[in-house]
Write the structure tokens for this entry.
Amino acid sequence: MLVSEYGMVRHMSEMRKITAFVPAELLAAAQEHTGEGVTETLRRGLEKLTHQAFYDRLRALKGKVKFDVDLDELREDREFDEHGNVL
């Protein structure tokens, strides 16, 4: 399993077996959405929470980091088609 913290991907090797009480309808709806079993559905839900926490921290930086980037200068070495797509 991969975990992203501050943009770095790490492999997790330690696994834990858990017992959790969850509403049956909630689990059934989540499994229907994932098309997976209980373990994979719960894993995907936990990964989404972890990713959401990362993006929340990233959004908290909005307006606090200043970039000195000239987009036109960055684009000088690229060719574009008539729709603005990079060739």
Observations:
- The chain is about 45% helix and 10% strand.
- The two ends are 36 Å apart (CA to CA).
- Residues 28 and 38 are 9 Å apart (CA to CA).
